[in-house]
Amino acid sequence: MIDQNELTRLETRLDSFDPETRKESLQSLLNLVKTGLIEVPEGREIANLHCHSFFSYNGYGYSPTHLAWIGKKHGIKFMGIVDFDILDGVDEFLDACQMAGIYGTAGIETRVFLPEFRQYEINSPGEPGIAYHMGTGFISSSVPDLVQPAFEEMRQRAVQRNQQIMNAVNQFLAPLHIDYDQDVLPLTPQGYATERHMVHKIMEKSLNVFSDPVEFWVEKLDLSADEIRKTINDQNSFKNILRKKLMKRGGVAYVQPEVDSFPTVDEFHEIILASDAIPCSAWLDGTSAGEQKIEVLLDLMMDKDVRVLNIVPDRNWNITDEATKAIKVRELYQIVDHAESLDLPVIVGTEMNSYGQKLVDDFEAPELEPVRDCFIKGAYFLYGHTRMAQLFGLGYQSKWAQQFPDRKAKNSFFETVGHVIPPELESIDISDTIIEDLSADDILAALETRIED
After folding, report:
1. Taking Cα atoms as reference points, which of 337, 326, 423, 406 lies closest to residue 374?
2. pTM: predicted TM-score of the whole model, two decimal places
């Protein structure tokens, strides 16, 4: 077996800001697996298709390459990245998944404005009309030239919000001062920071600058010295307190979103659809005013081309309070039933943008047993779209894919493809004819024949 120190060294290098170092380290780890010096379990039908990477913020500092290794090391068959406002990690992640034999997918998340629900809180607490929203099934870190200006504008809006937050925080925290460019951006591999990066630097600098940081934070956070001492040595807990007190609703730097604070759903969808990816709604827990109108909300979103639903299951069942748990488990089952009635594939994940969140959901939990098959079907579907788009340019949004009589048949095809195409497959010639002329059945038959050969 490999020496533990060497394993730690290689895994640490997976999070280097140098992409070649990340790739070389993954290859070294996979070579050790091949020679038997590292033992890994067989991939199980479990999925985490909502992992933020260090390109936006990962609570463990994991790069896209490291997330692919997490899948290999722990036997997680399906892995997917979803970064905020950027697609920087897509190429790296899909390449790493191919190397590691992981069924990989990639997406993007942002906040959008939904005019039709402007009076309802949806899944962004305290922000009526604002929704966390996703695109999934991307196969490239680049977007088409046609939507590049809109994509860049979306990113710049996020940067401007960050700088506005940082300025307000600095005013409040004086004499502590954080320089956004000099202190925060170096924490990122490609210069895209989030609130969580700012919080990390605020905490770190306060511990280094003040001889008694407890005294400083007692004054600034309106908490007792005992309350500060209980958490300040647990850096992750203290970061959550800082983010809540400084940046979230009610915090000193919080700014209530306006109509133009975020792109509209339709503007975001233009970028997704131009990239041949799939618009994806994100469901919180079913308890907000907007999500209590889920039938209306999903009908509206599907009219706007949403074809996938994302859920973070852990926050709907892994709850201590039994009364709250009962409500949220019921809501979980109801949303899955409703999605299935609409032929809307469901994908799941744990986010991993905060330390302590699971590497993968507990698919063996009794509470998830009624919905487990739905989650795995969604994973095969999204992977199937990804591979058809990569290999042939015939993903879910392609002109070729309009041949199906209904959504159910279309979803079934891509789910079946997900079962057929192995992750390691780099290319395949399945026909001497023009592939766009083949029917879905012909493509499946050719794929199965060629892959078996």
Report:
1. 337
2. 0.96
